[in-house]
TrEMBL record:
Name of protein: LVIVD repeat-containing protein
Secretion signal span: 1-16
One Pfam family this sequence matches: LVIVD
Keyword flag Signal: yes
SUPFAM superfamilies hit by this protein: Tricorn protease domain 2
Keyword field: Signal
Organism: Belliella filtrata
Transmembrane feature ranges: none
Gene3D superfamilies attached to this UniProt entry: YVTN repeat-like/Quinoprotein amine dehydrogenase (2.130.10.10)
UniProt keyword annotation of Signal present: yes
Length: 542
């Protein structure tokens, strides 16, 4: 059967039926793997390291480096994962959901073939993600995924010719998961349409959207259909603030009651490009929508009034205009991420009073098709280019020491340049989070919080750098940290490049629960010392 994309008009009349967990999927068409070493071989860290959020106002290079302010969000690319393949056919990542120590990633295949996958990533060690389980679907695309109370809720599109027991191409699946593995059969439910394209949880119900001439449907906990309502050209569904929201390429945004799908209100949008992926996300009282070339829209709930439309801040040379579009949005803990295709990923800060500030963009490889942020984890899907996995170093994620080992009193937030120079007579004391380009320490620098340094860190012979919290430096490629003076640490350190400890330099760990990870080489010259209690995760300082 020729594959009918979720956003192409149906040529047949589709229908929906009630279903229950008595409908397992044919396991012969699902290939399971739990060989974590083999699966994780697709993950590489060759490009890992601190990344910059580039403020668009300073991207042209027309100002000096010292005029560029520091960033607010320390961030590092920890790994990249190639997309899985089956029988020589490469898949593309379509969706990510994150819960606790695990990330759940869905995949499909562009073109006529029905082929998809779900993978589980163990992200308990943020800088060392591993794939713990994989399910390849040889007769279905997997378009979206949602974790809720030990189960994955899945939006899929099936080849009905290859699955004779399935009545509609659009399917809503569930499976139990625990400890990084699949722990039950995959169970199905029919839904009208050619493809399920979005799924969310509204209380104890699942809201599932199918594209083109499909529907928005509510299912109970037994995957029995409660109610459906037709909606043209659906792209996504989301739930929050006691409201279900749908995004249509032709009808804009619709808001629905989660109890009976009665229509609450509509938000008019420009008609969108056919077949384009778009997503929604929610915060308390706010709705975020990806709106293609128009960027992202932010709307107040329940009225649906426009708060702000956020344009795409970058127009890179050599990128087709059609690829400079906001494909997806994701919100968590005051940060909105926009996946802007060939224009990278925009980072927007959302303040309590609904004030929004575009902090800048992250330059990543490939076209950014999907983005998911949750806590300190950030996943960006780049089509067949696979996944980019990043860590945000948030100050609030750093546990306070029981007995402070570094004096953090009389500190103030750092608001200076991205190039921090501490002169020999300076005693600088800062707190908070900072993303810096270069740091040169000749005097005394105390920082309590989280810091990421993208380029150079030099602690000179009379310099003292006291760091309490979380600290990251450099990149795996051509990066080197020079220590001539004294670095005192209470917390965690990740050095993505080399560490050079010159003669008589000191690396001192104070207090408890300290760790250091050095991915490059360590050079210790005459008189260099390392003292204190710490976990050397890579064994480089022995």
């Amino acid at each position: 059967m020729r594959k009918i994309c979720s956003l192409i008009l149906l040529l047949v009349v589709a229908f929906a039926c009630d279903n229950s967990r008595e409908n397992p999927i044919d396991r012969n068409n699902i290939i399971l793997s739990t060989d974590s070493d083999q699966l994780s071989a697709r993950i590489n860290r060759s490009n890992a390291g601190v990344v910059q959020i580039v403020n668009p106002a300073f991207a042209s290079g027309r100002v000096s480096e010292d005029e560029i302010p520091s960033g607010k969000i320390p961030m590092a690319l920890v790994a990249q994962a190639d997309a899985p393949s089956y029988s020589g056919k490469s898949l593309r990542a379509t969706h990510v959901d994150i819960n606790g120590d695990y990330a759940y990633v869905s995949y499909n295949k562009e073109g006529a073939d029905f082929l998809g996958a779900i993978e589980i990533y163990d992200i308990s060690e943020p800088t060392k993600p591993r794939i713990t389980a994989q399910a390849i679907f040889t007769t279905a695309d997997i378009n979206a995924i949602k974790y809720h109370q030990g189960r994955l809720h899945i939006a899929a599109a099936y080849d009905v010719d290859a699955e004779p027991t399935i009545e509609t191409a659009a399917q809503y699946l569930t499976v139990s998961v625990a400890n990084g593995g699949f722990t039950s059969e995959f169970v199905r439910a029919n839904i009208a349409g050619s493809a399920s394209i979005g799924v969310t949880i509204a209380g104890e119900r699942a809201a599932v959207a199918s594209g083109s001439d499909g529907v928005l449907a509510l299912f109970d906990s037994n995957q029995e259909t409660i109610i459906t309502t037709p909606v043209q050209d659906l792209r996504d569904v989301a739930y929050g603030s006691n409201t279900i929201a749908t995004l249509s390429g032709t009808e804009g945004i619709s808001l629905w009651s989660p109890s009976n799908l009665s229509a609450l209100s509509k938000i008019a949008l420009d008609q969108d490009t056919p077949e384009a992926k778009r997503t929604l996300d929610m915060a308390e009282g706010l709705l975020f929508a990806s709106e293609g070339a128009n960027g992202a829209g932010v709307y107040a709930l329940p009225a649906g009034s426009l708060v702000k439309r956020i344009p795409i801040v970058l127009n890179p040379e050599g990128v087709d205009t059609e690829d400079i579009v906001t494909n997806a949005v994701s919100f968590d803990e005051g940060l909105l991420l926009m996946a802007n295709g060939g224009a990278g990923v925009s980072v927007v800060e959302v303040l309590d009073n609904q004030t929004l500030e575009t902090l800048g963009f992250i330059g990543l490889e490939g076209s950014s098709n999907f983005v998911k942020i949750k806590g300190k984890h950030l996943f960006v899907a780049s089509g067949t280019g696979g996944l980019q996995i990043l860590e945000l170093i948030r100050k609030e994620d750093i546990p306070a020491p029981v007995v402070p080992a570094i004096n953090c009193e009389n500190t103030s937030p750092y608001t200076g340049s991205s190039n921090l120079n501490v002169n020999s007579n300076d005693n600088m004391r800062f707190t908070g989070s900072a993303a810096l380009s270069n740091v040169n320490v000749n005097g005394t620098l105390t920082f309590c919080g989280s810091v990421a340094i993208w380029d150079q860190l030099n602690i000179n012979s009379r310099g003292l750098f006291e760091m309490s919290g979380s600290f990251a430096h450099g990149r795996n490629i051509n990066s080197r940290m020079h220590l001539n003076g004294h670095l005192k640490i209470n917390g965690s350190v990740v050095i993505y490049g080399d560490l050079v400890m010159n003669s008589n330099s000191k690396l001192e760990f104070v207090g408890e629960n300290n760790s250091i990870t050095v991915y490059g080489n360590v050079t210790k010259n005459n008189g260099a010392t390392v003292t204190g209690n710490f976990n050397d995760t890579e064994g480089k300082l022995k």
